[in-house]
What does this fold into?
Amino acid sequence: MSEPFRNTAIIAPHGGSIEEGTSELCLAIAGYTLTGPGATLPSPVQGVPQRDYWMFEGLTDPTTDLHVTSTHCDDPAALHICGSNMYAVSVHGFDEGELARKIIIGGVAEDPGNPNLNELIPTKPSKRLQLKKNMKAALAKQYQLGASNPALAVEVVYADPGASKGGYDPENIVNRTRCGFGVQLEISRPLRAAMFGDIGTAASRRSTAGVGSGNQGYFWNGFVTAVREAVDDYERGIITSSL
It folds into this structure.
């Protein structure tokens, strides 16, 4: 069977210590790892397709001034990576006192508050929306044990139309692709923390991603596997959800 054309970029606009855990997730979804003794450069993961990726990382604290909003991201490398791919997936983190393990799925697909959206973006609305549907279905499948076990529960929702975390703006870096859209994934701080044995530093995140005495593997592997699967299916033209 022939392989699908890989044309989805994975990005983390607020990586490193800005939104902890998003760099590590970006690399993993793109098919790379930074684990291993003395690892300083990403290495391809065997048996997983490698994708283009881009990250902007804060290396020291505080990092408030480094939080450039996604609509103002004009990094030449980011523009090139997204502009060279048909689609993109951006990985973000949010806090704001959120107590639940939660994922908000956004990105340009539909926005009732913007009647000119269809004129700005060449891809049909149904085509744009399908990538978000694939993403929600894949995440729900990976985290289905949470329905019967609160300790494993993850809430997966679509962003409200016009919401600040919706990723609806065509100027958002995730939407500056060849098709004019992508998917933005916002992950709550409690869920990101649950993915690592120690989320505190870059070194500890690299060594404890999906590793620990709790359910780190369930939360980390579930997210990485789901996003990879959703993107793979979309590139193959597979519709996995009608939600």
